[in-house]
Design a protein that fits this description.
By secondary structure, the chain is of the alpha/beta class. 39% of the residues lie in helices and 16% in strands. The longest helix has 16 residues. The N terminus is likely disordered.
Amino acid sequence: MDMIRDRQQISPPPPSAASASVPSRIIVFCLPGIGDTVLFTPVLALLRRMFPRARIVAVTMFRGTEHILSTNPDLDEVRHFDFFNAKPWESIRYLWRLRQERFDLSIMSFPSNRLEYNCVNWFVGRRWRAAHRYHRQSWRNLWFLNNITVCETGRHHNVEENLRLLSAIATRLGVPVPPASWDEDRTACLRQYPLKLTLLPEDREYGERFLVENNLTTTRLLIGMHTWSSTYKNMARKCWDKDNFVALIRRLSEAHPQARFLLVTGPSDEEVNRYIAERSDHRVVLVREANLRRAVAILSHCGVFVSNDSGVMHLAAAARVPVVALFGPTDWWRLHPWSERHLVVSRKLPCSPCFYYSSRALRCVANLDYACMREITVEEVFQNVQRLLSAESPPPP
């Protein structure tokens, strides 16, 4: 496997240098969105095992990712800074304060294919700076500012890409390398390196209280849905049509008369979910919860979760909820739910997937008006939901 070959390409330092290379202060930049941050949690667990005495600090750019990481036991501290909306001088001042802390190792989580991210890694990392080199815009984004790198392969899942980077770090610093267990078997890999999401007792209590207040008893079948996505970089076009979700709810209601449907609702989801709820005969409950851990505590009671490719999809997988994932222009092989209990619905068109990690917005390169999403039928999604509800084991990814 490529992870093993990567180890052979990097010569470990001599034993005398190895002990001096063990970092005591590590900073991890989790600047992408919720889903990508969730997919980085297996690496955080391994990082703690590799460097048990190091102080590990995570920096996030979004409040949602801060909520997810704030209870992670593998981190000593989680910090938030809104680089997205901060003035340039405010960002520089914040980064200067980070630089003064003299972090031995700085890690940029995958995917982070931006010039600004590489500059941040270079400026803050005192000795070692780890990040990926991407297929697109790599030179333009100054990948060489990092001194521990692996090349994006295009055929590994995001979790595996993060593991490859950690393997390169371990080899370069002369510490034991995490075992590469998958060897063409992704199921073995996801069993060995599961997602990690820690809910507090008060989060679980909130979830239970939500069910009681909304008359959702545990004897009913709860089906969760995320019908929308981030609008950033035109990502709303990777979503299934709202009328399809209305039809799916009706179809599932016929098969499961006692079922109720929980729709995760944020500011960008409100209009779509209200449209669906108004056409679903009072079977829909909107989950409006800004604290994502509380939202996960609610969704953990679902028997199945239906979602577009989104961060909430990965949260459901981390909560061990079976997921039916709808994929179109994005790459399902690299982004599918990191769990055994999932099924992917997609169209194998010659042009898909067409979106790759870059600063450019999503667009239909074949000018087919996103046929990859439009051609996914309600019946097809319904049958996949039925498979998961019947406890029929899906094939390995």
